[in-house]
Specification:
Layout lengths: L2 H14 L5 H12 L4 H6 L7 H15 L4 H5 L1 E4 L2 E4 L12 H10 L4 E6 L5 H9 L3 E7 L2 H13 L6 E5 L13 E6 L32 H13 E10 L5 H8 L4 E8 L5 E8 L1
Parallel strand pairs: 3-4, 3-6, 4-5, 6-7
Antiparallel strand pairs: 1-2, 7-9, 8-9
Helix pairs in contact: 1-2, 1-4, 6-7
Length: 280
Amino acid sequence: MNVSEARRWITGILRDAGVSSPGLEACLMISEASDLSRSAVAADPDTPLGRETVSRLADMVRRRAEGEPLQYIFGSWEFYGRPLSVAPNVLIPRPETELLVEKALELLPEEGIFLDWGTGTGCITMALLGERPGLSAVAADANPAAVRLAWKNLNASGLLSRCFLWHSRTPADIPVPRDGFHMIVSNPPYIPTARIPSLMREVLHEPLSALDGGPDGLLWYRKLFVSGPEHLRPGGWMLFEIGDGPQGEQLREIAPSSLEFKGIFHDLSDKPRVAAWIRV
C-alpha cells in the first residue's frame, strides 16, 4: 500500500463514520504512523508504506471511527505552538483557549506570579511561562492525573523550575505568595450538566469532571469567586474562559463587589470566550 491508497482507504472509513475532516485526518494519521512529514504525505503519493505502518494505521482508523479523539490516539498535540502530551483522563487543549493566553499576556506584568486553576495538561501555564521569562506560576488541579501530566509537560519543555504544581479539590486550598497573585487564570468546567449527553461523541471520550460545570455551568466559577479575590494583590486580574450564550452576563451578576468587571472578549468565531475582572 502506498500513501495515495492509504489516504483513500482512511478517508472513506472516516467519512462513513461521520468525521468532519476525513481527508485532513487521513494525512495526519499517515504522518503519525510513518516517518513521513505532513508535507511529504501531501507531496509524495506514491511512497510505499511498510507493513508495520499499515498495521498502526489500521488501529488508529478503528479507534477514530469509534469516536475517540485524534489527540488521544496520537498521545500528543500542539497548543500555542508548543507540543505537549495528552492523555484520556485529562481534557484536550482547545484552540479557542489560546485567546485566554493572549489576553493574559496583555495584562500580566513582565515579572510576576499567576495561578492557573484547573491546569489540566498545563497548556496555559506552559504558554505563559514560555512567552514571558520573568513569570512564575502555581498550577493546580483537582484531578491528580492532570497534575502528573502537567508535570510531565512542564518538565519536557524546560519550564518546571518556574512552576509550583499543586493538587487540590478546591481553589481555597492553594499556596498563595505573600503579596498575592498578579493574576488568576482559569478554564474551569463550564458545561451545564443537562447538556453533557448532547455533546459531540468525541467530547464524550473526555473526563466528565473536566466538562461538567454543575446545573447551570457556574459551579467552579462560584468557588473561584469565593476564594479568588483574597488570593489576588490589589490590581490583580481574574481571567476566565467562558461558554457561549448568557454565561458571561451570568458571571457578571454573581461576581463579588471586590472585583470590577472589565469586559468579555470574543474568539475568532465571534463567540464570547474570555471574561475579565480586576481586584479593586
